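Dear H.,

Thanks for agreeing to be a second pair of eyes. The structure we're designing against is below in token form, covering all 289 positions.
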């Protein structure tokens, strides 16, 4: 009986261990599905990643209907696909970018809506966002004239512009700096593909990684461009001086809370009364809390 109990116990332990290993293995195997590399881009119109993974049935129809064959279905353990959920479509901009087909056949082919059929204008696709990731090696930043990425962009002068700045090295020559404007960038990857460097200085990565997000108590100035520089006006009506030759980035301004609260930085709040903690019931004025 004792042996039987011992055997039963060992079998039970083994079963539990196996179950734990299987569960652990499943957890490890499922993890990469949500941790795809930043350079693995989804086709146009792809839903947010979690919803996309739930909706995509891995049929490969988008891949079949993609004329330049830039889309691939991820397979087990090769290249970038090693971290992309198996069987799902993706592309690598540096290998073959999206051609931004006018009629978006990949989206039309998708039977489940994982590629959103509401996307009918390819210029509104947001597959990722281009980022000039390495200013130290970009030829334009080194003072040379390259601007290949600027010239190949299908949304030229909107998604990417060349911003003129003085070259601090010579103080005489101008630098034309490729500058991406995320609100217009489709993430097609043509700029990354065409960068002349051995490793691209401009890369398209998922927008989640490429972009920060202001605290919601901040607001952006409305900044307009003029021929002589960049003139702006805040929503509060404050004038922003023209600054010839500087990139046109809106300066965020902080909107302070209406009422002081604990932790306020009083010097920032010119003229406001300092925060006074409410007296604790029953305590004497001036007594330590
Ligand atoms: S828009 Fe064209 S090139 Fe781009 S992924 Fe779709 S079918 Fe392929
Ligand atoms: S990814 Fe590059 S080429 Fe494509 S729209 Fe954006 S800046 Fe232009
Ligand atoms: S193609 Fe590459 S090196 Fe040339 S300007 Fe663009 S990012 Fe810089």
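And this is the sequence the design step returned. I haven't edited it by hand at all.
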């Amino acid at each position: 009986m004792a042996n039987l109990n011992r055997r039963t116990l060992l079998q039970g332990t083994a079963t539990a261990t196996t179950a734990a290993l299987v569960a652990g293995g499943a957890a490890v195997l499922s993890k990469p599905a949500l941790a795809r590399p930043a350079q693995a881009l989804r086709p146009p119109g792809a839903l947010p990643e979690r919803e996309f993974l739930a909706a995509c049935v891995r049929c490969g129809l988008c891949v079949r209907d993609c004329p330049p064959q830039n889309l691939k279905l991820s397979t087990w353990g090769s290249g970038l696909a090693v971290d992309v959920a198996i069987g799902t479509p993706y592309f690598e901009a540096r290998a073959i970018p999206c051609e931004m087909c006018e009629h978006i056949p990949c989206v039309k082919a998708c039977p489940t809506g994982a590629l959103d059929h509401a996307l009918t204008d390819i210029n509104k696709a947001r597959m990722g966002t281009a980022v000039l990731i390495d200013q130290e090696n970009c030829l334009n930043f080194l003072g040379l004239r390259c601007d290949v990425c600027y010239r190949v962009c299908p949304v030229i002068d909107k998604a990417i512009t060349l911003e003129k700045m003085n070259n601090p090295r010579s103080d005489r020559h101008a630098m034309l700096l490729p500058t991406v404007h995320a609100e217009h960038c489709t993430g097609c990857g043509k700029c990354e593909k065409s960068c002349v460097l051995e490793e691209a200085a401009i890369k398209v990565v998922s927008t989640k990684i490429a972009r920060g997000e202001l605290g919601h108590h901040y607001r952006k100035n409305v900044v307009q461009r003029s021929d002589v520089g960049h003139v702006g006006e805040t929503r509060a009506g404050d004038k922003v001086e023209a600054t010839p030759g500087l990139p046109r980035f809106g300066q965020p301004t902080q909107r302070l809370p209406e009422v002081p609260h604990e932790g306020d930085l009083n010097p920032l709040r010119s003229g406001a009364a300092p925060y006074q903690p409410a007296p604790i019931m029953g305590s004497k004025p001036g007594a330590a809390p």
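Two observations from my side: The chain is about 20% helix and 15% strand. The longest helix spans residues 2-30.

Warmly,
E.
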